[in-house]
Amino acid sequence: MPTLLELSANLVGEIPSLPRLIAQKYINKAILEIRRDYLWSWNIGEGILVVPPLLSTGTVSVTQFSNHITFDAVAMAAIAPIENAIPPLIERQFRIPSGPIYNILSYDNTTGIAVLDRIYMETTNAGAQFAIYKCYYDPPSSDGVNPNNDFLRYLTILNNVQGYAISGKRLNQPRSNLNRRDPLRGAIGWPFYAFAYRPKPIADPATLNLTTGGPTNGQMQYELWPHPTYSVALLCQYEKNHVDLVPNDYIPDTLPETLVMYRALEFGYRWAMQNVGRDPTLKGTDWRFLLAEIQKKYAMELVGAKRNDKEIVVTILRPGSANLLNFLGPIDSNWLQSHDTF
């Protein structure tokens, strides 16, 4: 398949005086527009969510109106193995039993002092029981550590240990629904729902100033519910977000080169129409006619590309599709495993 550099060179060859950097921008814009039009097979990624077990050994000292908490020696010994584990301690959540959930921003393994993402509002307690687990999750990753930067939204989350999938209406629900259903977050165990939480923030422990951005570039975090407390790796299938290609990057193998070029030529012809009065090399060409013709070609090519993509991968559950599943009986793995089928 051609690279971004090769496609942009072809575009420059079609339109005199078109700057190469603008040509590269139009190629990336064309891929973005094509990506948004359909759930393509090349637009689906896979990753994992690493769920750690619950930790509740020892006690913690908490002070009302302070964002600093102090673990005792027993708790510090229990925390030591997970401080830099996958996921690390600062990616997990803290709570007093039946209390609200706090994010852990930092931890000093010499003093046992941890910093929370907001001030502790409950009653001061010098020897409180606690729970550390993970309920807020970044986008899935391939290594369990670094979230994939092309994540847009989940298609399914599979627990292949317990044998079920989080999909359909159980995915991407607003957090307000969970706030109504379980405001105290009392349900823990195996997760069956994923709720939007917030864009990934950067937190300054000194000021508690949260700003979106950072390694995951403001990507949405999700709250799994019931809150998971058992160790498991959840397998995720997700729709990719657009990430601009750089000059030596290749377009996906199953993305037709002609489809990209037709869409990019639309942008290029509009550029030529806007600049025809300033550049003599653009005069003498009926750019409006070329634009109308390329739009027709793109529409026809798009239909064929969608048909071919369906034939490549017929197992994708595309939202809005008719006759989504042709199962006999309830769509549930437990039912299928306990009944004869044919």
How would you characterize this protein structure?
The chain is of the alpha+beta class. It has three domains: 4-40 and 252-312, no CATH class; 45-50 and 136-240, no CATH class; 53-133, Elongation Factor Tu (Ef-tu), domain 3. It has helices spanning 4-14, 20-37, 73-79, 175-181, 257-275, 287-312, 333-337, and strands at 44-51, 60-62, 68-71, 93-95, 102-108, 113-116, 125-128, 131-133, 136-137, 151-159, 164-167, 188-189, 193-199, 201-204, 209-212, 220-225, 227-228, 232-240. The strands form five sheets. A seven-stranded antiparallel sheet has the order 7-2-3-6-5-4-8. Strands 1-18-10-11 form a four-stranded antiparallel sheet, with no helix packed on it. β4 and β5 (102-108) form a beta hairpin. α5 packs antiparallel against α6 (287-312). The longest helix is centred in the last third of the chain and has 26 residues, at 287-312. The chain starts with a helix and ends in a 5-residue tail after the last helix. The model is unreliable at 204-216 and 320-330 (pLDDT under 50).
Number of E strands: 18
Low-pLDDT segments, ≥5 res: 204-216, 320-330
Cα separation of the termini: 43 Å
Number of helical regions:
7
| Order of helix and strand elements from N to C terminus | HHEEEHEEEEEEEEHEEEEEEEHHH
Radius of gyration: 26 Å
